[in-house]
């Protein structure tokens, strides 16, 4: 679970009322607001298919670079992590749970959340902003 941080906001363009559409051939954006006290941030993403976590490689897993964060992150402040992931055209159209973790310098979770998603063909999407209460924060 989240030992070293607390999710304060989440913004994912392309999310509907209950599921996030990940459009093939496009970038999917995620913006996570959180509080913490760490020196390093690493992003780890898995797609959970039939209960099995499958690693989802990121072009930039270093959460301290090109993400809006400047490490170290002292306590008492709010931070915003921003990144994009490319949804490849080769990915099959299916429903998946995205497990997104930000880990600290010791490999422990700063935050961990799970998002229901569906890989779909590219099309115009909506933006949904919701509060952390509607997430599964582990």
From TrEMBL:
Domain of life: Eukaryota
Span of domain MD-2-related lipid-recognition: 1-117
Location of this chain's protein in the cell: Secreted
Pfam families: E1_DerP2_DerF2
Alphabetized UniProt keyword annotations: Disulfide bond, Secreted, Signal
Keyword Signal: yes
InterPro entries registered for this protein in UniProt: Ig_E-set, ML_dom, ML_Npc2-like, NPC2-like
Main location: secreted
Gene Ontology MF term list: sterol binding
Cellular component GO terms, alphabetical: extracellular region
BP GO annotations: intracellular cholesterol transport
Keyword set includes Signal: yes
Family: Belongs to the NPC2 family.
Protein's UniProt name: MD-2-related lipid-recognition domain-containing protein
Annotated organism of origin: Capitella teleta (Polychaete worm)
